[in-house]
Amino acid sequence: MEDKEPDTVIRLENVTLILDGHKILDSVSMSFWEGHIHAVVGPNGAGKSTLAHTIMGLPDYLGHTGAIFHRGERIEKLPIDKRARRGITLAWQEPARFQGIGVDSFIRSAAEAKGSSVDSGEMLKLVGLDPDRYLVRNVDKTLSGGERKRIELASIVAMRPDVVLMDEPDSGVDIEAINYIFDVLEKLRNWGSTVILITHSPEVLKRADHSFLLCNGQVVDKGRVERMSGYFTGHCVPCVHKNNPFCDEVTP
Ligand SMILES: Nc1ncnc2c1ncn2[C@@H]1O[C@H](COP(=O)(O)OP(=O)(O)OP(=O)(O)O)[C@@H](O)[C@H]1O
């Protein structure tokens, strides 16, 4: 156990979000720490992506109650671009395609947004892509899903974000790419970034320092990842959600 709780970078206080008459986030209170990787696990439809979208401030997710703090300042009324300027970034479950933008300028502009510059070829090497082959490409539909995901990851490294929300970074990428993702996670942690990682993978969970189990829009458990890994073997905590048949049958 750590002697003292690390600095809190993102804090949610009693966040409730109702969409189409359904409570998608239900009185969620969470703290995310500097230089730590936090995994958010839970069944399909639990509200994990919604949590990420709400922290990022996507337009459809601004109508919640409760408070969101970034480094002690309330941000829940800020639009997405202002949160991005504060160094909060989101890597999508399905990475965006920017028709016509070159890979080189896509990565460089990520760093320029923070007032710095990077060697985009080096960033590509970090995610295992050959600069000679990919720097001349465009970020568009001619790239495979896994390639786009790696390029988005390279742009995140270039950005050196304060907070990075990653929605299933391992989905749709091959075994080799997962190791590059782990390297990137390690780098972000060493830089002091706060990583919030949504995952369905026990392997990815193992890389985290702290974890939350989200269920039916509620945080039903939190703690060290060893404790949460039981979720993947069916040892869930009792709760009221209807998506995971294990939870009705198994006591913690
Ligand atoms: N804009 C919306 N309007 C209505 N319901 C929504 C909206 N966005 C999400 N939902 C619902 O909110 C619930 C949580 O969705 P979310 O995508 O956050 O789940 P998740 O935990 O990320 O699931 P998965 O593991 O399948 O990706 C789902 O039931 C979803 O259908």
UniProtKB/TrEMBL annotation:
Source taxonomy: Bacteria, Pseudomonadati, Spirochaetota, Spirochaetia, Spirochaetales
Protein name: ABC transporter related protein
InterPro entries noted in UniProt: AAA+_ATPase (IPR003593), ABC_AA/LPS_Transport (IPR051120), ABC_transporter-like_ATP-bd (IPR003439), ABC_transporter-like_CS (IPR017871), P-loop_NTPase (IPR027417)
GO MF assignments: ATP binding; ATP hydrolysis activity
Domain ABC transporter: 10-241
Species of the source: Sediminispirochaeta smaragdinae (strain DSM 11293 / JCM 15392 / SEBR 4228)
UniProt key word ATP-binding: yes
Annotated coiled-coil segments of the chain: none
A GO-annotated cellular component: plasma membrane
PROSITE patterns, per database record: ABC_TRANSPORTER_1, ABC_TRANSPORTER_2
Keywords of the record: ATP-binding, Nucleotide-binding, Transport
Gene3D superfamilies per the UniProt record, alphabetical: P-loop containing nucleotide triphosphate hydrolases
UniProt entry tagged with the keyword Hydrolase: no
